[in-house]
Amino acid sequence: MKENKFTLVECPRDAMQGWKNFISTADKINYLNTLLKVGFDVLDCGSFVSAKAIPQMADTAEVISNLDLQDSVTKLLVIVANERGAEEAVKFNSISYLGFPFSISPSFQMRNTNSSLEESFERVKTIQELCERNGKQLVIYLSMGFGNPYGDAYGEDILLYWASKMTDLGIRIISLADTVGVATPDQISSALNSLIPVYPQVEFGVHLHADAMNWKPKLEAALHAGCLRFDSAIKGIGGCPMAQDELVGNMDTEKMIAFFQEKNLDIPLDKKVLQECSTMAVQIFQ
Questions:
Q1: Is 75 within a domain?
Q2: DSSP letter, residue 112
């Protein structure tokens, strides 16, 4: 785990996946190649999942094959939901991370990956073995990480249980996902404060969904709890199309960076290229 340095994860995949109009492969390639010049640590750039379930991501293999990492410090992350997707992903030398959405809400795990928690954990075991054999790192997203709208049980004991199961497999990056934007600042503080001291070997992150009214308190809570890994998307576009009908947007990258700068925190990004990406996003997401 890196000490005292933020890991910034830009998530165009999350912005794109629920977009109703298909974004052309050429536009995706152009946008992602420009994002690779900004200086983000990680680019969540696509997913190897069912094209029927997430048609917007059907061209992920072609998109990744056309990304230029030659002069970029950014590493690529893709989302997988099962072993088949993981087997596809590990074939790409350019991919460093595989992300798996493991919901601690049984209802949402069934809805999102059509599997129980027990079945999903078996998938995690297999995918972790694949990653280890192929020089990749598995990132576990504990989705519904701050509660859920289904009435499923939630608490620090559940978070600690699944974090323990994941770390026992050798997983060292766990991100708590506010999948439907239900988290309060107190919940974010409580969840992170229950996990970070117990697992110092793990890099804990947050994948927060927020709106114009609550993004700053959520971000502040995570920062004060010692979180150093933050997912976001330019313009705050996106959300999980498998969670509910009305998407709650992602954390807005530009607002987040401005917030960090107000705190006098060093965020070494190319602001000029970031602005170029912001202009491109307006054109792409119409």
A1: yes
A2: H
Q: What is the pLDDT of residues 150-203, one digit of tens each?
A: 899 999 999 999 999 999 999 999 999 997 788 999 999 999 999 999 999 999
57 phi, psi to nearest 5 deg: -100, 10
DSSP category for residue 249: P
**Quick check: 40 and 269 in contact, CB under 8 A?**
yes
Total domains in the fold of the chain: 1
Cα(283)–Cα(280) distance, rounded to whole angstroms?
5
Q: What is the pLDDT of residue 162?
A: 97
| CATH code assigned at 94 | 3.20.20.70
In a domain, 1, yes or no: no
The phi, psi pair for 254, rounded to 5°, reads -65, -40
Residue numbers of the domain that contains 75: 7-284
Q: Are 121 and 165 in contact (CB under 8 A)?
A: yes
pTM above the 0.90 mark? yes
Examine residue 145 and state whether it is found in any structural domain, yes or no.
Answer: yes
